[in-house]
Amino acid sequence: MFFKNQTKPYAVAKIAGNANYPDVKGNVSFYDVYGGTFVVADIRNLPDSDGFHGFHIHDGNSCMPMQEGGHYNPTNQPHPMHAGDLPSILASGGMVFSAFYTNRFYPEDIVGKVVVIHANPDDFKSQPSGNPGPIVACGEIKGQ
User: Which of 143, 139, 144 is nearest to 28 (CA)?
Assistant: First the structure.
């Protein structure tokens, strides 16, 4: 079985927009699975109602400005090989539902860190972070 007898996520980040985007809301859930993590993002009211947004886990432990930290990168890899480099999310009508698997971390590795959503897509080549533009929303990852 893919999920480790888990019916609820191991960790969740409650996403909230910053002062410039106060209507952005949602959840990012992290499920413990064999060999990694299953990530489910459900976000509403993103700007650029139809477009890609950079989506990362940052090292910071707070969504307060300037405390988000850089991308989660425990093995000191170049971008886009940071453990916190996630696939850009695609908004349609300002809404996102995305689900994917990653073997770059386990949920217990990221509890206490933050999920960040950017205004633009990650280009997956610019150093050090993919040039995704300003932060639109953030959520602190908390264990359940």
Answer: 139
